[in-house]
Amino acid sequence: MSKRSDLLTQLTSSLSGSNVSVSSELPWITGSEPLYVQNMKVLYLDEEQISQDILFTTLDSHEVVSNVSTINGYLQVDAKNQPGDIANVVSNVLSAKSVISGVVSKQSDYETEITSDKITYTFEYRFTDT
Amino acid sequence: MNITAGSIGVLTLSNVLANANVQSTTAVTVPFIQDLTLDTTAGTQTYNVLDNSAAKTFTTTNTNQISLNMLVDEATFFGDGSNAERVANVGLLGSSINKDRVHFELAFEGTDTGGRSVTGSGFISGLAPVLNMENAVITSPMTIVIDGQITNTTV
Question: Which backbone phi and psi does B101 adopt, to 5 degrees?
């Protein structure tokens, strides 16, 4: 299974019973706005992005490559009146990275942006493997 | 000498002199070498004479060694436990522990006949595998302390 699928499964489980739900759809654009703007209090995960870095090269033309996978998540809620469990939601979203196995490094963080009366949480997961 | 052609710096090891060549199918070729140095440092003797204001010098015996850094290959490092070729059987680590003499050929231009190479024999030393979460692979230096003279030859 892909890392995105594993994260969706984990997030659906960990956020059940909370004020935020999880969509399996990509955050595509409808009209002029992405889905997470149209549907507030719904978490969307973007497609996995992969970049490669060469760690080592050897005299016999062997390369050891590091793959860094990045997955972004988006959640928008009312900035004037955030869900009462938003702190738990954010904590569960960040800790969902632990479900991914077979990687050397797992990282997650988020940032927020307030536009008008909406606050958008943008999450980023980064996984490194060789 | 161009190192971008690939397969440069081929080092093969064997406990049997006749097998220690880079074209041998039984010798152990050390894989995944990142860098390699052939050190042929000569000793020196300096003396002064009455008719010269500068010291005079001549070289004495050489101290030769091969030092390298490599990615650790499990079979090569630890041995396969079943090969008739002893270096392959006990691995680089076993050869170091047992202080087995290893014969080597170091080819500077790959394995094609006529390429420049150096041969000799010595003992494996300086193995220091490093396990580091930053790199996710195991690397190790290795030194072959060469016993006696090396031979400048071709493959």
Answer: -75, 130
Distance CA B11, CA B137 (A): 21
- Whole-Å CA distances, A105 to A6, A7, A64, B19, B107: 16, 15, 16, 44, 39
Angle made by CA atoms B112, B113, B117, in degrees to the nearest 5: 85
What are the tens digits of pLDDT across the range A7-51?
999 999 999 999 999 999 999 998 899 999 999 999 999 999 999
A59 token code pair: 């005299």
For B36, the closest chain A residue by CA position comes to A59
Among all residues of chain A, which has the CA nearest to that of B29?
A60
The rounded distance, in Å, linking the Cα atoms of B38 and B119 is 11
Tokens of B24: 């041998």
Are the beta carbons of A27 and A35 closer than 8 angstroms? yes
Which ipTM did the prediction report?
0.76
**Residues A7 and A71: beta-carbon distance below 8 Å:** yes
Question: Which tokens go with A57?
Answer: 């090269």
What torsion do the CA atoms of A83, A85, A89, A91 make, to the nearest 10 degrees? Answer: 130
Flag if B32 and A62 touch (Cβ within 8 Å): yes
CA distances from A128 to A102, A109, B136, B137 (A): 9, 15, 10, 13
pTM: 0.75
Interface A-B: count of C-beta contacts within 8 A: 46
Residue with the two structure tokens 């943008």: A122
Residue B115: alpha-carbon gap to chain centroid? 17
The answer to whether the CB of A129 falls within 8 A of the CB of A101 is no
